[in-house]
């Protein structure tokens, strides 16, 4: 090297690099995602083996060897399987009871319609463009219509008492009314917990911590066993309504904590701006603070809704006929006793559809917030 | 230089009007408290009246009476001739037994699944996602009933499955080999605990010394001495026997070994799988919350993969993970009360039976609440202590 300053005239020829391994196409994808390294390849093969065995087993049990229909209560075909195949025949036989409980058979279009109204209500409420004041009116109207449908007693609809309600409508009623009343309660309690007034604040803290500190079952036991003790003579409230009250109190405590998180996320300046405008406490919160606070916590709110929807199944323990209880009751029938797994799978699919839709929705909201 | 405190404006005279915020505050507080007191007094007077009509005496005197309640699955001695108090203690032990083991297992499985969701192996990540999605979106009670039905569908004891020698799975539950704990063995266990504690103290001092002079001192000789040699010596001196009892089939049931009753086993599986799905999501988001630059910087320093995960990523992720993890632990403990649905006698189930037998509704539910509030408080205190320990020390 005589000179450092100038570029040599004929640089040493560097051989061309080998072409990179194909990254595109299915083979490239496989290589990158399934067989990137030796441990990864071993893991993939192991998982494929286990998955394959599980799939074959499930296929044989659930489809290949399954009995789909039997006539009447003759389950001998199912019994002959001795567990090597599913007896899906239990679903067409029992689905009316599982979905609607002991509601009069010929009137079951009414709970079915109620379920559809519920679903439509949820679908409408999930659209951002419908988040307006009119939505509250819509909810009130829908809940009244559902109540009228379920009870009846007018326009030629026969009256059906609550103890005959059952199945999916009861699950949806418990969850929806619990939320519809628990949410305002939660907002009030959350505001109370952030209030400057010590007596109100400690009452709210006591309520929230007491409810959140104990299992839901003990609240339901309270509602079913202790509530009558606390009522004056002659006052008797229906079991479903008592459970509903327990759910409202329960939902209120959990939603209060979520809303409180949202209230904490609203900057101080917003409160101060409200004060500067001379708004009253309620005007300030209703017009300025709460709309922002709730917008902050919509994803956790939806997660609380999901948890709450699943928790309604606990009424099984106090003997209210929700979806899970009707499923469990359907297989008390001696002919179908040994096919509970099939019934639980059927009910599980229904619960899953509702919860999965909500969790997908929550995730899409979070994604929207991430981009905006 | 003198510092002068800013002068407070003179206090405004009180006006007896709701537009004065102080008067309004007082007014609302008095109103709310009065309503709360009135409601409680109303309910209480009704309760007193109703109880006297039904001839139920209030108070906890019933705890001393004979329970007459059979409890099949108990870790402490109990017969139906024992008192209600003892039945309640059995219930609490049963709750703790499922909650503590459940928390440990759910944490382990949840962490593994959470890490698997972030795996670069597509199949593993997908399967972990399906696990989380399915388990989170089904009610726990449904899952519990499902597992319980599966347990009951297992073959009878004579045809029990034997996945590994000494382990049996039948409709009597899961039967495992066990080590009987004689008195002599307890000394060894005690020595092991003492050794671990002593090692932790020694290790702390070694680290403190290293902080001072920068010289690394190996800790393993102490570990060998305190954790291995000390218990071994005690075991030898006290003449402990560590023979494992294998369960055997005699007649229609198993003798020896440790039996996990089907109720307990179903409850444990349901709680662990359900909670682990939530923990997996917490772990995943915790790891994702650590900026990529952290692990890249560590790799650039030439640190090994395991070291990076253990000393760089996890300590930072833990700060995000611990608070939601605490609430999952609390949830698992509270959810263990679903035991009543499959007939595992935890505190709620015992209290419910007591309530039906004696009519002492208020006392029984008060006991449930006390037990759960105590457990919740215990878990919260522990997790808060741990959280404070690992919190970011700002210098």
Description:
- The complex is a heterodimer of chains A (372) and B (395).
- Chain A has 372 residues and is mostly helical.
- Chain A folds into two domains: 52 residues; 278 residues, Orthogonal Bundle (MetI-like fold).
- Chain A is built from 15 helices and no strands.
- In chain A, helix 10 runs antiparallel to helix 13.
- The mean pLDDT of chain A is 83.
- Chain B is mostly helical.
- Among the domains of chain B are: 196 residues, MetI-like (MetI-like fold, Orthogonal Bundle); 52 residues.
- Chain B is built from eleven helices and five strands; from the N terminus they run H-H-H-H-E-E-H-H-E-E-E-H-H-H-H-H.
- Chain B has a three-stranded antiparallel beta sheet. Chain B has a two-stranded antiparallel sheet with strand order 3-4.
- The longest helix of chain B is centred in the N-terminal third of the chain and has 34 residues.
- At the A-B interface, helix 2, helix 8, helix 9, helix 13 and helix 15 of A face helix 1, helix 3, helix 4, helix 10 and helix 11 of B.
């Amino acid at each position: 090297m005589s000179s450092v300053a100038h570029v040599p005239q004929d640089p040493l020829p560097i051989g061309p690099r080998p072409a990179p391994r194909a990254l595109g196409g299915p083979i490239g994808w496989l290589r990158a995602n399934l067989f990137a390294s030796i441990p990864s390849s071993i893991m993939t093969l192991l998982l494929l083996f286990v998955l394959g065995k599980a799939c074959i087993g499930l296929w044989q049990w659930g489809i290949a060897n399954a009995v789909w229909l039997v006539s009447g209560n003759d389950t001998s075909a199912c019994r002959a399987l001795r567990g090597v195949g599913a007896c899906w025949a239990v679903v067409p036989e029992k689905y009316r009871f599982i979905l609607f409980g002991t509601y009069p058979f010929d009137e079951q279009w009414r709970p079915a319609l109620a379920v559809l109204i519920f679903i439509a209500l949820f679908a409408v409420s999930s659209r951002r463009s419908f988040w307006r004041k009119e939505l509250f009116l819509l909810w009130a109207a829908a809940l009244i219509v559902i109540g009228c449908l379920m009870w009846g007693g007018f326009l030629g609809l026969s009256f059906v008492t609550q103890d005959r309600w059952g199945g999916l409508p009861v699950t949806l009623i418990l969850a929806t009314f619990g939320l519809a009343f628990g949410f305002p309660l939660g907002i009030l309690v959350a505001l109370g917990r952030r209030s400057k007034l010590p007596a109100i604040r400690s009452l709210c803290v006591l309520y929230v911590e007491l409810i959140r500190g104990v299992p839901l079952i003990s609240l339901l036991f309270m509602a079913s066993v202790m509530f009558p003790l606390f009522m004056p003579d002659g006052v008797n409230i229906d079991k479903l309504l008592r459970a509903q009250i327990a759910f409202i109190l329960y939902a209120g405590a959990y939603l209060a904590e979520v809303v409180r998180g949202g209230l904490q996320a609203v900057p101080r300046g917003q409160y101060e701006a409200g004060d500067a405008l001379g708004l009253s406490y309620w005007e300030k919160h209703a017009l300025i603070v709460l709309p922002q606070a709730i917008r902050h916590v919509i994803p956790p709110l939806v997660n609380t809704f999901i948890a709450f929807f699943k928790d309604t199944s606990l009424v099984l323990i106090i003997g209210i006929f929700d979806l899970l209880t009707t499923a469990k009751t359907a297989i008390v029938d001696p002919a179908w006793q040994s096919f509970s797994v099939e019934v639980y799978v059927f009910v599980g699919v229904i619960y899953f559809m509702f919860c999965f839709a909500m969790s997908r929705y929550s995730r899409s909201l979070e994604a929207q917030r991430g981009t905006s | 230089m003198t510092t002068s405190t800013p002068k407070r404006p003179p206090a405004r005279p009180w006006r007896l009007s709701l537009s004065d915020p102080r008067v309004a505050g007082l007014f609302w507080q008095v109103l709310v408290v009065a309503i709360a007191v009135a409601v409680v007094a109303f309910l209480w007077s009704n309760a007193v009246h109703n109880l006297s009509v039904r001839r139920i005496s209030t108070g906890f005197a019933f705890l001393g009476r004979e329970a007459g309640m059979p409890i099949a699955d108990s870790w402490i001695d109990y017969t139906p001739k024992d008192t209600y108090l003892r039945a309640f203690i059995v219930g609490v032990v049963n709750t703790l037994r499922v909650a503590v083991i459940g928390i440990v297992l759910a944490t382990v499985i949840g962490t593994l699944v959470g890490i698997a969701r972030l795996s670069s192996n597509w199949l593993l990540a997908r399967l972990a996602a399906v696990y989380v999605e399915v388990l989170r979106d089904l009610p726990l009670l449904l899952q519990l009933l499902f597992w319980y039905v599966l347990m009951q569908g297992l073959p009878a004891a004579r045809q029990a499955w034997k996945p590994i020698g000494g382990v049996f799975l039948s409709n009597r539950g899961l039967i495992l080999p066990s080590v009987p704990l004689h008195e002599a063995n307890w000394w060894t266990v005690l020595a092991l605990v003492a050794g671990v504690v002593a090692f932790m103290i020694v290790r702390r001092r070694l680290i403190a010394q290293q902080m001072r002079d920068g010289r690394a001192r190996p800790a393993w000789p102490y570990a060998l001495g305190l954790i291995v040699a000390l218990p071994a010596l005690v075991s030898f001196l006290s003449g402990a026997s560590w023979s494992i009892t294998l369960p055997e089939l005699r007649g229609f049931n198993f003798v020896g070994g440790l039996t996990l009753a089907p109720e307990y086993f179903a409850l444990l599986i349901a709680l662990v799988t359900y909670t682990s799905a939530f923990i997996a999501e917490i772990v995943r988001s915790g790891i994702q919350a650590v900026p990529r630059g952290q692990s890249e910087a560590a790799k650039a320093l030439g640190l090994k993969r395991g070291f990076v995960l253990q000393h760089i990523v996890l300590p930072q992720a833990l700060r995000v993970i611990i608070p939601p993890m605490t609430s999952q632990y609390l949830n698992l403990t509270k959810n263990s009360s679903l035991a009543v649905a499959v007939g595992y006698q935890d505190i709620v189930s015992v209290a419910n039976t007591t309530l039906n037998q004696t009519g002492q509704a208020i006392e029984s539910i008060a006991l449930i609440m006390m037990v759960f509030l105590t457990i919740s408080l215990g878990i919260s205190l522990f997790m808060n202590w741990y959280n404070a320990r690992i919190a970011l020390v700002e210098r």
